[in-house]
Amino acid sequence: MPKPTRSTVLVSALALTLGALTAQHSTAAPTAETLAVDFSQTTGDFRGGASGTLYGLSDDGVPSQAVLNGAHVTNTSQKPPDGAQHPNGDVLNVEKSFFAGAGKDLLVYVPDMYPDWPYNKGRRPGDANNDGVWDYLPIIRQVAEKIATTSTHPKDIVFVPFNEPEGPWYPVGDWAYQKDIFLADWSAAYRTIQDVYAEHGLGHAKIGGPGWYAWHQQPSADLLSYAKAHNELPDLFIWHELGTNNLATFRGNYAQYEALLANLDLPQIPVNITEFGMLRDMGTPGQLVQWMSMFEDKKVDAETAYWNYSGNLSDNSSRNNGGNGGWWMFKWYGDLAGTKTVKVTPPRLNAVDTLQGMAAVDSVNKKATVLFGGGSQDVNLDLTGLDRIGSTVDVTVRADRLNGAEGAALQPPVVLSTRVAVSNGHVQLTVPNNDRYSAYQVQITPALAARQPVSTDLVSSVEAENTALTNATVYYEDPTREWNFMASNSRDVGSFNQAGSGATWPVTVPHAGSYRLSILAGTNGVPGKHALFVDGVFSKYVDYSAGLHWTYRGTTDVPLTLTAGAHTLSIRGSADGTTKLPGLDIVLDRFDLYDNTSGENAVYPAAEARLAGGAQLSYAQAGTAGYAALGGPATATVYAAAAATGYYDITAHFVTTKAHRQLKLLVNGRPVALPKVAAPGAWAATARVYLPQGINELTVSAPPGDLLLGDVTTSRGAAQLAAEADPANVHRAEAESLTLAGTAAVESLPAATGSNGSADADGVVHDVVNVGKGAANTITMARPAGFGAGEYQLVFGASNADKSDPINYNPQVISRFLDVTEAGGSTVRGAFRHNYSWNSFWDKTIPLTLTTRAGALTFGNPTGPAPHLDTVTLARFVAGSTLTPDS
């Protein structure tokens, strides 16, 4: 990857106005752009290869399995075993989680054995000891040998012996001279890898290359011709499409590549664009959909570039277990697996930062999908070929907006839900849109028994720059600057660093009740605080966790209780108007107010689930149209987002014609028992489950027989909070109150640090440090009475700001690990992602199966340092279940 030159990278989110969206059959307004989709013209099997990521995985468990599976990552490039380029991302450490999901090709960047960038001080290795052996070959052999003898999937590993070789090692400007050197080196590298695999009886080793940093026609032709003659063709042809302009030039580059194959009489060699996109594209749905549409159109694999740190899908996931706006774009894209893509005509093809899209049809389930975004005008969807779906169709549109790299995005809201008559296979809809950073998912099915309503919980969305500001400055974040992250509405508010700094705005709420204020903001490597005032009166403090830098934004949620009608909300840098709050210099981007009076509720329809094992949507009866037929190996999987760590009621709504039927539920791979029905009919089976904050994989199946699943819902309100408050369900402890051994010690973080940890009455946070780096350095928690053998969740409030020494421009962050040992039982290990500051704490949930009646739990790490621990919570995984008739 070419080294960026920048002083500050700007991160932000987009603005989205969720108005009332209407379907119409007339021609769209002149301001609309038309995206035409012809579902009768299929363009091939959906490939799904544009969900790749460079160094998107850092360790086993980072990212979490649910996040990885939901993003449907099919390919990734990682460092070789013992590689020095980065402190994590080792291919052997991530292959377990990668292949447990959608993983197909696991690429290894062999030159990442070198610690520096450009590699080897920017010079091609020579023969330093004059032994007649090219100095790079022993390195290649070491990598191939380690993978051949240690990997559990050696035949699925793709060796990439060169990364951007035309830059430092073989300057393309001098290709006439460099060509022969490179081609000879290609042979040497290729044969070395194949020899190692042959020695171990593994057959052919997959090799990818050349790995150009940009498309080069003549060097590519030279390599392909030479490799054909020497029987050394790459299994994947690799180059990079990084700059913004590649949104306009890629198709032309790919056409040249296909022409080379034809001219050389070569078979189709799959392409992997192992690095694509710039900082501004990462985590931004409206940008990602442009890249993904382009790559899917040409059926190539592609990987988001690695600009920050490993383990978060290239800035497309958040925190320990969350999904940001970019993650939902990956998820929507992965949902198309098993479909056929169809012809899409955007207003302008190969035009940078414009409306683009992709579409697919699932003939088995009679479902059509369109994904689009990137424009800033209303979108007229001109849909043809829908006669294969039905004469009347239901259309559901969800909106996915950017909410920062560390933004905790819940299920994207429904912004349009309508039933439309199909005329000669044709439907025309207008989706109001003024946000180039948003992406939209359109799903079209036959008439459903239960069409999803338009979401109404967002009652106010206000840009920070549109509030009444004091002692603060509005900044323009130019979206054309490639090294920027996007800002909501391309503007944000900074220099918020005085006691008198404030942002004030009006809101009107529909009724008295509970609300959730979600603040999109960025902190500069440290946690911080603001004061929230309601109607001019101090209400509470806002605790922000640390971020990578001011513009690497995240969301902070604040609960509010409001009366019906008009109110004034204000974020201020001081509670008393004089004393500055710690870490108050925070960049503010957007304020979203959600109605939370009825709790946090989400519906995941079977029509939107990932179906496998023969599961199929049924439209035979109007009352169950769009339900999924389950039985035997058939499964329906949804990815449910939880705003908080705690109890949620997970309810499966289903219909069965037989008695004594029992659905099977897996929550993040763990079985949860649901009640068995005694009679035929419509039922709602509920389990109260302690979920980790973020993304949760919920899979429903059933024994063979007649059963239809309508949806899976999650809910969290007063009843679930009461279950958390019950000490028979949940035991909470401050880490410093437990038994410490060895070097484990209590640390005090004064209020001046701005820590968001669990504070005492004086505002001081106490955490435990120096755990690990030896078997004796531990914390032990006695099991509370009644917490016997069974299934639990163990939740830590933890911090990890560990880094290795700077090597190159990437932040060299390090995951830390914590072992949990049950006395008389087993040990499980949890991975804790870097979270920017030792004073900033995130929840990390570790699944725990206890096998003894009362064996104590000991936390440590004999081989390395553990994270700092603030709080420890032991919760019953399941706190009851119910079965009720479903009306």
TrEMBL record:
One of its GO terms (molecular function) is carbohydrate binding. Residues 1-28 form the signal peptide. Keywords: Signal. InterPro entries: CBM6, Galactose-bd-like_sf, GH. Residues 460-594 form the CBM6 domain. This is CBM6 domain-containing protein. The lineage of its organism: Bacteria, Bacillati, Actinomycetota, Actinomycetes, Propionibacteriales.
